[in-house]
Amino acid sequence: MMVEFDGIVLDYSRQQATVDTVDKLYNLAEAAHLQEKIHRMFNGERINSTENRSVLHVALRAPRNAVINSDGKNVVPDVWNVLDKIKEFSERVRNGSWVGATGKPLTNVIAIGIGGSFLGPLFVHTALQTDPEASRFAKGRQLQFLANVDPIDVAKNIAGLSPETTLVVVVSKTFTTAETMLNARTLRAWISKELGPSAVAKHMVAVSTNLTLVEKFGIDPNNAFAFWDWVGGRYSVCSAVGVLPLSLQYGFSIVEKFLKGASSIDQHFSSASFEKNIPVLLGLLSVWNVSFLGYPARAILPYSQALEKFAPHIQQVSMESNGKGVSIDGVPLPFETGEIDFGEPGTNGQHSFYQLIHQGRVIPCDFIGVVKSQQPVYLEGEVVNNHDELMSNFFAQPDALAYGKTAEQLQKENVQQHLIPHKTFSGNRPSLCILLSSLDAYRIGQLLAIYEHRVAVQGFIWGINSFDQWGVELGKSLATQVRKQLNASRTKGEPVEGFNFSTTTMLTRYLEESSDVPANPQTLLPRI
Ligand code: F6P
């Protein structure tokens, strides 16, 4: 129950599964036509049937000479056209030949985007920040992300920054997402207010599939970086969505290594036999945990602070993909799909929610460890170096979960009788370990692709569409109704109407208590 591929070891021996179970899961995979579905994805078939789209994020990291077709057209040359354009543009910004409106180099980047246009790039940025090679390339530069429509996020992002040295990258697949577009208009106002409206052309660029709306917004189409409708938002970190901001920060050569890491897993996923296929094994075991054993959650526990944004990214990849109630043909499912993903880096999580994992609910855990620290620390006279101290916990926790501690053991240790029930650990709590030989751009790409494909495997087995996200629409449209009401009440004093009793009461209260908000305000930007 251990497999190894290209610097990564997976140990799944502590799952609640025997070799026989895994054999049965292979049979399940066969019955669900898993191999065929993987091939259909790689072949550019329109497997996202509710949106009539193919699912080709693997093409985003394919080598230049690869051939991957969508509708009979090889998409790889288009991918590389954009990558070449990003390389050229990011080099110009980084070497100071592209300057801002007042002639100053643009050393700060704010990437505006939300969901898939934010979480993946944030994860990769956070992981690269402490990598010695990447951080050398990022010297003197700063990359920030503005996601939340909460004006506090604007305040936090622009605090201490001058528009003169800032480049804003508006990242939105659709270029219609309410939060992103309001934040983009806000930073456009921030730039215009200080440097005049003509400065926007030098200080704002865009990443989108909707180049018409980019132009309408006022961004020069030459400064727009395209991607395609066959890239799902949460699978877009390897498109210009991630590649542009990350190349601006770290240089294209680092980002290319990240793409190569992801590509190595793509090849492994599409060609390795199931017994040796890391994403397939992980996906099958997740199906086992969720659908057969009934465990609704999964903890993602990287023993690396550099991976602190990994769990938040996988939350979207997994829960937006597999949190579905009907099959791909629209038939209500007689079983649960998806799992509740959460996590924190170790050892922080140990001092937070591990109590529940050890003695409360059963939560299958993914322990992710790294052999060589990005930032080793050795202290003279210490028992072990700092990374070994971290990794002592990485190796100990899975065994604590698996073996537990019995009442007999506690008795032998002379534990007071009344404390024995409290100090007993049931054991037999499932976990798996993923050990990476290092954590550089290449490995970060591998880790990303492993989880992307694992989620796809789960969806393929469950027979759902892992690539649409209709569940996010209803809340968005109800917010439109509230937005209209707030405008009508603030500008014309209209009473709250058309909502249920609860919402009417709360909205009325909100309006009453904020009656000092101006009806037709002048632009006001945060100052902290
Ligand atoms: O939350 C819904 C969603 O559509 C995500 O799937 C997507 O990643 C996010 O919104 C942002 O969308 P866009 O990139 O179009 O702004």
* Strands, count: 13
Low confidence ranges: none
Overall outline: globular
Count of separate DSSP helical elements = 20
List the strand order in the largest sheet.
Answer: 1-2-13-12-10-11
Associated small molecules: 6-O-phosphono-beta-D-fructofuranose
- What number is the mean pLDDT? 97
Multimeric state of these chains?
single chain
> Residue share in helices?
40-55%
What percentage of amino acids are in beta strands? 5-15%
What is the alpha-carbon Rg in Å?
25 Å
Largest sheet: 6 strands, mixed
Task: Explain what this protein looks like in three dimensions.
This protein is of the alpha/beta class and 528 residues long. Helices cover 46% and strands 11% of the residues. The chain has 20 helices and 13 strands. It has helices spanning 19-31, 34-42, 76-94, 119-128, 132-137, 151-158, 178-195, 200-203, 211-217, 240-250, 252-271, 278-292, 310-322, 354-359, 386-403, 407-412, 420-423, 441-462, 473-492, 501-513; strands spanning 2-5, 8-11, 69-70, 73-74, 108-112, 142-146, 166-171, 204-208, 224-226, 297-302, 340-342, 365-370, 431-436. The chain has a 6-stranded mixed β-sheet, with helices on both faces. Strands 6-5-7-8-9 form a 5-stranded parallel β-sheet, with helices on both faces. Strand 1 and strand 2 form a beta hairpin. Helix 4 (119-128) packs antiparallel against helix 13 (310-322), helix 11 runs parallel beside helix 18 and helix 12 crosses helix 18. The longest helix has 22 residues, at 441-462. Bound molecules: 6-O-phosphono-beta-D-fructofuranose (F6P). 6-O-phosphono-beta-D-fructofuranose binds at residues 114-117, 172-174, 177, 180, 233-234, 320, 469, 472.
